[in-house]
Specification:
- The chain has about 500 residues and is of the alpha/beta class.
- It folds into two domains: about 5-100 and about 265-340 and about 435-485, FAD/NAD(P)-binding domain (3-Layer(bba) Sandwich), CATH 3.50.50; about 140-255 and about 345-430, Polyamine Oxidase, Chain A, domain 2, CATH 3.90.660.10.
- The chain has helices at about 20-25, 30-35, 70-85, 125-130, 160-175, 175-180, 190-195, 200-210, 215-225, 235-245, 250-255, 265-275, 330-340, 400-410, 440-450, 470-485, and strands spanning about 5-10, 55, 65-70, 90, 105, 110, 135-140, 145-150, 155-160, 260, 280, 285-290, 295-300, 305-310, 310-315, 325, 345-355, 360-365, 370-380, 385-390, 415-425, 455-460.
- Helix 3 (about 70-85) packs parallel to helix 12 (about 265-275), helix 3 (about 70-85) runs parallel beside helix 16 (about 470-485) and helix 13 packs across helix 15.
- The structure holds flavin-adenine dinucleotide.
- Flavin-adenine dinucleotide binds near residues 93, 115, 116, 346 and 470.
- Flavin-adenine dinucleotide binds near residues 70 and 460.
Length: about 500
């Protein structure tokens, strides 16, 4: 859903009147002026007379809550605010809803440039699909062979039975989850046990297991892929929770990939947004959020100003540090903003590949330019669409000339003839991919970052209790933030 300006889903858009502009003109400061003069006092109040440069103002009083960000977390929050009788206004930086989901068409096929799959084990997602009448079904051609690294930089083809060994390695990495995650949706339920291991990275875990070099080569690609390129960045407890949530088994783990909703990621989100009956304002990146204890003032980069009794900040945690908060973020939020929760590098590409490649799933080793590449749609005439992931920020995955040599390391007979890609690490409104907690973040930060800060509540996939890094987790946080915000209006 691409948009040119404000749109309204269900209710008429509010006009910006001369009176409303004049009324605001006495009280709110322009982004530029705020940055330059520090016109906000320590309590977050915006000083009068600092308005130079503001151009427009939202019609205060026509909404009860401002939701910043129209991804799954923000849209859920808006819908739940509406369900509680509060009128939401959504302010979105892009010209579309969806954030890190982005349904497109390429080579005649529906593709997802961000999130792709839902799993039947994701209860909140399943409830939403049911509520709006969407089904979930398998998509993509299954592989009939695998490619794994056999030594650094050298790959070899295997039968699918190679996955038995790979699955055993995964099971060893996650051994013990039934003990430390007895209730995977409540990650701190066995808090003492979790505290003992939360500082460990996935790389530490591989060290502990003293894996033979070849085994480490096989498994490190997956662990570093999910960590955004470096297995030292991902917490063991983060990925282990992904293992625990769908049942502590390899079958559960593999069920996370492969099933899609009718109409893709876009269809469900559009249905949820329609229910929110929220005015959405597009192309307005929020630069500044002030809470003076009575209401929240939100200022966009272009100097548009909106005020409401509460706000839900539903942008990725990696974006927090690029928004100015007054008063500043509380210490735990500030630490997560600094460290990030979305993995730093995550580029996804859809490659139209020609050649005798077969139906294959290829796994890179840690540090390889491509971490995973697999057959997805058969296009006929010896062509197929493959999905690939890269966490190498120096590789431009949208350029077939750069892709071809690195793809051929894994699949010598492949020729990439066209590609559609999105590099989420370089996207200024994502600044990373899916969330995966860093070592120590679960015990140190999670409970604190789920709490509101004054009249500001937070929602995004990185601060979920359950499915951190998934749409289900984003939805969870949208519900929580709506409840917190509604309690203040
Ligand atoms: C490549 C990739 C593959 C993935 N695969 C899966 C998968 O298969 N299944 C799954 O469940 N999850 C998957 N995920 C994770 C999933 O995409 C996220 O968990 C989910 O989309 C996060 O939703 P969100 O609402 O928290 O954040 P977002 O979707 O990022 O939404 C935040 C919104 O805030 C907006 N915004 C940012 N800054 C500002 C600002 N300053 N002012 C106003 N608006 C702003 C953004 O434009 C965006 O619309 C994947 C993610 C990636 C990147």
């Amino acid at each position: 859903m691409d948009n040119q300006g404000d749109t309204t889903s269900g209710i008429p858009a509010t006009k910006v009147t001369r009176r409303s502009v004049l009324r605001a003109a006495g009280t709110v400061a322009a982004v530029g002026a705020l940055g330059a003069t520090g016109a906000v006092n320590a309590a977050g109040a915006v000083a009068a007379g600092d308005l130079a440069g503001t151009t427009e103002v939202g019609e205060e009083g026509s909404y009860d809550a401002i939701v910043i960000g129209a991804g799954y977390a923000g849209v859920t929050a808006a819908r739940e605010l509406r369900a509680r009788g509060r009128r939401p206004l959504i302010i979105e930086a892009r010209d579309r809803i969806g954030g890190r989901t982005w349904t497109q068409t390429f080579a005649g096929q529906r593709i997802e440039l961000g999130a792709n799959w839902f799993s039947p084990s994701q209860d909140l997602v399943m409830k939403e699909l049911k509520r709006y009448g969407f089904g979930l079904s398998p998509e993509g051609v299954g592989p009939d062979k695998a490619v794994f690294p056999v030594e650094p930089g050298r790959y070899q083809e295997f039968g699918l039975d190679a996955f038995t060994h790979y699955d055993n390695l995964l099971a060893r990495v996650f051994e013990g989850t039934r003990d430390y995650f007895p209730r995977p949706l409540e990650p701190l339920y066995a808090e003492d046990k979790i505290r003992a291991i939360d500082g460990k990275s996935l790389s530490d875990r591989m060290d502990d297991l003293k894996l033979p070099a070849r085994d480490r080569l096989w498994i490190s690609g997956t662990l570093s892929n999910y960590s955004g390129g470096n297995s030292a960045d991902g917490a063991l407890t983060a990925l282990a929770q992904w293992w625990a949530l769908p049942g502590h088994t390899t079958e559960g783990w593999h069920s996370l990939i492969g099933q899609v909703a009718d109409d893709g990621m876009k269809g469900l989100l559009e249905a949820m947004l329609a229910d929110a009956r929220a005015r959405v304002i597009y192309r307005q990146p929020v630069a500044y959020i002030a809470d003076d204890g009575r209401r929240v003032t939100v200022v966009t980069r272009t100097g548009r100003i909106f005020r409401a009794p509460v706000a839900v900040v539903a942008v990725p945690a990696n974006v927090w540090k690029h928004i100015r908060f007054a008063p500043g973020l509380p210490p735990m939020h500030a630490e997560v903003a600094e460290q990030g929760s979305g993995v730093p590098n995550a580029a996804k590409f859809w490659a139209r590949v020609r050649g005798d490649v077969g139906r294959v799933v290829a796994n890179g080793e840690e540090g390889a330019p491509i971490s995973a590449l697999f057959s997805y749609y058969d296009l006929g005439n010896s062509e197929q669409l493959m999905i690939g992931f890269s966490e190498d920020p120096s590789l431009d995955v949208s350029d077939p000339a750069q892709l071809n040599p690195v793809v051929r390391r894994m699949l010598p007979k492949a020729e990439v003839v066209d590609v559609r890609a999105q590099d989420w690490g370089k996207d200024e409104f994502a600044r990373g991919g899916w969330a995966l907690r860093r070592p120590g973040q679960l015990t140190r930060h999670l409970p604190a970052v789920q709490r509101p800060h004054g009249r500001i509540a937070f929602a995004n996939d990185g601060i979920a209790s359950g499915w951190t890094g998934f749409i289900d987790g984003a939805i969870e946080t949208g519900f929580r933030a709506a409840e917190q915000a509604a309690a203040l209006v």
